[in-house]
Structure formats: C-alpha cells, structure tokens
C-alpha cells in the first residue's frame, strides 16, 4: 500500500492534480501546531477528494487552516468523512469542509457517525441547502442529543397530527412538511421544526393549533372563493391577507364551539380582546364573525373595512398563510372528479331503485314510466349543520353507500351545498371509458426461445402443438424509495394485516382422545369409565392436546404486466405486492411472483420477480419497484409455464393466483372466445395437477367471463383500484384459511 | 352480600332493561318469535345486541339462556353429555337442550367464535323441523312454540378469520345493528348514566372521531358501551379527559401512536 505522500508525488509527476491545484491558491505554510498534520498536508488530502469541483473561487484553504488546530485523530476522522460524503455528493462534501469543522469541537467520536448520517439524510430529503442548515445547526443538534431541546420536529408530531385530522370529519388530509404553514385543501403543510414556544408541550400545542386551523379552513368553507372575488382590490395580496385574518377570527370561533379544548389554545395564542381594542372596525368585524351563522362571505365583505389597517394586526402564530394558487389548481381538479364520481354514483343508485320499483310487488303502484322520471334531490336535515343532508329519490329518502356519502361531503366542503346541476340525471356519457392502449411498434419476431407450450384451439377442439414460444426473463432491479413510501403510506393497513396474519399463523387446533395432552378429555374419560365398569379393555387416550396447525402452502402470483396496466393500476399492483410480501413473510408460506406479458405467440414473456427459493430481500424489492406495463395478455401460455414451475414445488396446498385487469388479449387473434377458451383450458390443466387457481381482477366487466374461466367461487372483482393493496392480502388470507 | 344464584332456565328478567329501538327491530323480532323463526343479530361490538336480547327476553317473558361461544366449544357442551355420579353415568343437558326443554330463548353470542362443526348442531332447530336430536341418548327433542333461537356475530373483524357458513346463516331472520345515530346515541347515554346534554353531545362527537379512524390504525371505533362507561365515570366526578383516556382510548388500542392521537382528540373536545 502506497503512503499518501507517495501517491501525491506520483500524481504530481504525472503533471496533474495536487501541484496544479495548489498553485491556484495563495501559498500557505505547512506547519503542524497540535501534533497533527500541517496545513499543506490537510489541504492536499482534502483536494484529493474534492479535486473535480475545485477552482479559483472554490478552495479548501480555510478548512485546512482551521483543521490544523485539531489532533491527528480528529483530522483523519474529518478527512475520511469528507471522502465518505463525496460518495453521496461532492458539493455536499465541499460544504461540509467549510461548515463542518465546528462540529469536531462539539461532538465526540461516538456521536460523530450519527451526526454525519443526519447530514446525509437531510441532503437526501431536501437537497444541499437543507443539509448545510443542519451543519450550521450543530448547537441545536447537541441540545437535541442532550434532551434539553424544547422544539419539536415534524417526525415527532406528524403521525399524531395525521391521525388527529383523520379523526375529525371531512375530507381526509395528508400531512407534509414545507417552509410555510398552509393547506392546498388535500394536504396540510407544516414546518420541519417548531421551536418558538418555551416548552415542548407549548410547541406541540402550537403545531396542533396550526393543523386544526388548516383543517377548519377546508371544513368550514374558507376556500369557497374564487380568484375574481379579490379582483376589485388594487392590491390583491393585501386583500387575501385581510381575508385570511378575518377568516382566522371566524374559524377560531367555529373551532371553539366544535372543539373547546383547541378553542382554549387558540384564544391563548391569539387573544381576540386585544384585536377588538385596536379600532372600531376591528371590533365590529369580530362581532359579526363571532356569530354562529357567519360564513366566509361575511369575511369577504369585511375585507374592505380593515384592509388599510393590516399593519396594526398582531400576527397569529398558528395561522400560516393562504396559498391561493395551490388551492385553486387542486380544487378545480377535484371538483371535476367529484362531479363525475357523484353523477356516476347517482346513475347507479337510479338503476338500483328503478329495479326495486319495477319489481312485481310494487308494479301495481308505480308504472315504470313514472319511476323513470324520478330525480334525486337533497334536503337539509339540520339548519345548523350544512353537512347534515339527506339524499332523496322522488319522495323517498335513501341512505347512500359510504363512498357516496364521502363524495357528498367533499362536494359540500367545496360549495357549502350540493349544487342543483349535480343532481340532474346523467346522460349517456360513459365515465369509465378505458384509455386507449398504446401500441408499441417494436419488431417482435424472434426465433430464440426457452420454452414452447401447446395452445387450445376451441374451434378445432384440438391443441396446437408447441404453439407458443415463451421466454423467462428477470426484471431488472431499480432502487428508489417506492417501497419506503408504500410502507409509510399504508402503515395503518400494514399493522392490521400483520396482526391478522399473525393470528392466522398461531392458530391452534385441539385434538381430542390423545395419549397425553394439556387437558382431560371428559367425553373420552366417561367412555373409558363405562368400559371399565363393563369390564372391557380401557382406552388410554384420555387427553386433549393443542397442536399447532402447520401451514404447508406454496403460492404463485401471476401479475398482469400488459399495456393496460400502465399508470395507476401499475402503481397499485406494486403496492399490493409489497404489502402482500410483508404479510406472507409473517405467515411463512412459500411463494413466488412472476409477471407476464408478450406480443404474439412467438414472444410470450414471463418475468421473474421472485422465485420460490429466493428470500424477500432487497433485490426482490427492487424488482417489484421496476414492474412496468408492457404489451399484451396471452394468459394461456403464462399459466402453463407457471403451473409447470409450481408443480415442481413440494407443498400440500398449491395456489396459482392471477392479478389481472382484463380479458386475455393478444394481437394475433388471441382474444374473445378463443382467448377465453384457451385460458380456461390452461386452468383446467393446472387443476388437474392439484393446483388451486384464483383470480383477482379490477375489470368491472369480469363477471362476464371470469366465472366461466375460473369457476364461480374462484375469483374476486375489486371495484375500486385504490382498494387493491388491502384486498389482495385480505383475499389471500381468506382463501388460505 | 352474597350474589343470587338462579338455574339458567329459571332466570327471568323482571325489570325492563333499557333499550332504545333504532328502527323496527322489536316488531321484527316479535313477529319472528310468533312465527317460530330463528333470529341472527349482526353488528359491531358494544352496539346493543346483547342488551336487545335481554330486552326481548323481558318483553316476551321467556328465560334467556346465553352461551358465549369460543373455539373450544364442542357440540357436547351445547347439547349435553354423560357424567359419572357414584358408579353410574347420568345424562346432563347442555344449555341448548335445556332451553329447548323449558321453552326458553337460547342466545349463542359471537357464534363465529365456535368451530364450524359445532355450529351445525343447531341446524335442525333452526328450520321448520325445530327439533334437537340427542344422539347419545337416542332421543329427539321437539321444541315448543315458546322456544326461540338467536345468534349474534360481528361481521367486522372476526369474519376475516371465521365466517358464518351460508348453510347456517340462511336459516335466520337477520337483524342488522350498528351504532345508533347521534341523537339516539346521546339519549342512550343520558338515560343510562344521567349525563347532561352537553356531555353526551361531546362524547358522541368523540365516538364519531374514533370511528373515522377505523381502518386507519384502529380496528374499531369507540362503541356505545364505551361511551356509557366514560359518561358514568365523568358523572361520578372523574375529569373528562382522564375518563375518556381510561374508558375509551386505552380500551380501543394499545398502539402508542394511536393512543396519543385518540387522547389528542378527546383533549380537543373537553
């Protein structure tokens, strides 16, 4: 191993590197003050790491000089760390040289690595600026370590706040971090750290107040405004500020009625008496807004009266700001979506009710003509609560399903009511038109193949010999934070799944009439006693024993990777697989995951994501992340191939579960009856080998063909794509019980 | 003071158990009873299924024999078994046979907890035959018109592990129970505990918040029963936040994050 100096000299001889670089800066003295390296050596060593980004403006002179003051050990630790950070990002390492020396003074060796990890994490999460802020914040970091900090971080409060907001009524709100406090009506943005209050508890109260304030904005109608409402003011920004101030007063009052505990906190943070004493206008405004029935329109009207006195207002610490732009863009999108979903739901309800009313029992009272003309209406149940509405069909009030209730609530949140036009019967428009599949223009002729499978031609009632050429490929690994995000997103669900799967695993079975066991089998005992009295031979099996039920299940998941799964379906498929794998790991079942797609019979493809032997490790996870929508759905060949793989595994129960989004379909005539018949045949072949088959699909028309292909009890149709992650694990548990 | 002991078939409820009808469940049950049809009650825990049975037992003036089902419950536990007395064996009726003999209401609580082979013994009693064959004795017990079979289960959480077989469930008149609407739930709390309107309103609001969390980390929201518990504590002087913590939050979850969130909800309200 060459020493550092030897390497430096070597580089110097080659005419690049250190010499050239050091010439750019002013000459510095090479001296070691505290027994460590001298300035020159430190500089050179740092430059070795940072070489590519240094220039006349960017040198490591200053850090080298500062580092002289440290012991050899500290210097080496520092330089080594710079090298490590270079692996993440060189600019970050450069910034570390300039901002990190201070931390050498404050941290001992045991704290060092954790500190570096924090810096790198900050960089990964929020970029270089974020990380530099953290480097400069060393004293605060020390406070944190010592537990003397009064501040509270996003990580500490986000979970609680998110659950708190979920518990409150209204549209579910996500919690995310941002520089400023605001909401876009779907996400609540809160700062990374709150430290303005004296104690940790007070800081938490403040963040809680902010979160509830933002929730109240969405629930009590602050956002039932349009941009043009502010058009009449010369200074729109000022007008929005005034509106926010007035709304804060109104919302505080509403919150105090709804949530008295929070109301007390708000009043402490932003006392209204103080504002009242400012001027007559303020007093008047507060009196109007404190009334029960005041709305955001009252606030809007009052903007004029206070807009010139904005400077007088004390800033309320929890209110944050109104971010008009972000709200408008999100709201517009949601309003359209809600309208479509609501009209679709009404259409369904309309159909259902028409069926009910057309049933023979009631036909005498209602002729179908009349019932066709019935429309939906909404009436208010309770004047004080705008959310308390009843949906009526004709004269009958009906109780809509939970999802429709949610849509209605979301619409009321945006408008304060269900607008009339939403209730008119929808036209013939199909809302769930499938996006067109994009055809890829690849040339797919290939003569290399690993496997050939027969295909069933139902017209001829014969197999086509070696008709499909199939290749098995392995999905490339990709590393991103999809897994972490998914686990985070579904953490509540995951907890439930884990528990239920755990329960499944620990299922005990009581075996009666055993030679030994935990309890006496009373019935066996009585029988034995009778035998004894009769002088017969006495059976010694008198005990009840608890046995663990051994699961011996091997399951193959066959994932549809056809073009139609692109976009959202692909994402939920991946999410479902991640949750499923987590659950299966608990259960200990043997499982494999393969994707399938292809184009024409010559290019059937099966993609390995996980085989039976593999562990659920990072490569499997990374492969799941990289599942992509490909071409077509030639199911028969894939089923035959995976059946072959599954039949080689030893297990008492074998299962082939297909996750799909549509019918079998390929370009060369593999569709309609032909595709369905071949798939059915392939499934029959699988069953013949003792493999249970099951299909989970999101195709709403699946009822037309799945019962025929899989049998009436062997499939599940998930109507809502978003529910797939929950359902897949749930269904798996049910069918393997 | 010693607790009073009754033979289960003689235990007739004398005082009217408080029950607030949510819909027409009382009429439906009475009519099913008249027509000798078995009844299935389904609904989440603590929403009033068992209280409803007590109320009906009082109303119909029939003894109520309740069997809480569990996965060790065998057919013999229900029907009966031979036991040894001195040097002889004697037949002892199980609760089901006893209920048939005396014409009582037999209520199998949380039926899905019992193993599926156990559940099958009630089948002959639950269709038009209305008989209980007792194989070991070689007799068939015919039910009188007084006898009534009722079972309950919670389709929410148990069904994941255990489901009621179609052949069982399709013998019953099914009554669905859910947490009552806000105003009814309030009056239930008020009449059960003597709480005032303000308190009952806040508690029901709190319950709804926890029910919003169902599926987001909570298995179940707070039941009406828990609200009654909390109200009782508060009425007898316990601080509302403490009462909610002890009788509701801690009862519905052990998860520290969830506990914190649920406690935050209650402190937001009180």
Number of helices of chain B: 11
Tally of discrete structural domains of chain A: 5
Q: CA-to-CA gap between the ends of chain A?
A: 61 Å
| Beta-strand share of residues of chain A | 5-15%
| Helix percent band of chain A | 40-55%
Report the principal-axis shape of chain B. Answer: elongated
The number of helical segments of chain A is: 30
Biggest beta sheet summary of chain B: 5 strands, parallel
CATH evolutionary superfamily of the largest domain in chain A: von Willebrand factor, type A domain
The strand line-up of the biggest sheet of chain B is 2-5-8-1-9
Radius of gyration of chain A: 34 Å
Task: Kindly identify the CATH topology of the largest domain in chain B.
Answer: Rossmann fold
Give the structural class of chain B: alpha/beta
What helical percentage do the residues of chain B reach?
40-55%
Oligomer: heterodimer
Task: Lay out the secondary structure.
The complex is a heterodimer of chains A (737) and B (270).
Chain A: H1 4-13, H2 18-24, H3 39-50, H4 61-67, H5 72-88, H6 90-99, H7 101-106, H8 109-136, H9 138-146, E1 152-153, H10 154-167, E2 174-177, E3 182-183, E4 187-190, E5 193-194, H11 200-219, H12 236-258, H13 260-269, H14 272-276, H15 280-289, H16 296-306, H17 324-358, H18 360-363, H19 368-372, E6 376-380, E7 389-393, E8 396-398, H20 402-415, H21 420-423, E9 451-457, E10 462-474, H22 482-489, H23 491-505, E11 508-514, E12 519-520, H24 522-534, E13 543-548, E14 553-560, H25 568-587, E15 590-598, E16 604-610, H26 618-625, H27 635-647, E17 653-660, H28 672-688, E18 691-697, H29 706-710, E19 715-717, H30 724-735
Parallel strand pairs in A: 2-4, 10-16, 14-15, 14-17, 17-18, 18-19
Antiparallel strand pairs in A: 1-5, 3-4, 6-7, 7-8, 9-10, 11-13, 12-13, 15-16
Chain B: H1 25-34, E1 39-42, H2 49-60, E2 64-68, H3 75-79, E3 80-85, E4 88-93, H4 95-102, E5 105-109, H5 116-119, E6 131-134, E7 139-142, E8 148-153, H6 166-169, E9 173-176, H7 182-193, H8 197-212, H9 224-235, H10 240-252, H11 256-269
Parallel strand pairs in B: 1-8, 1-9, 2-5, 5-8
Antiparallel strand pairs in B: 3-4, 6-7
Helix pairs in contact in B: 7-8, 7-9, 8-9, 8-11, 9-10, 10-11
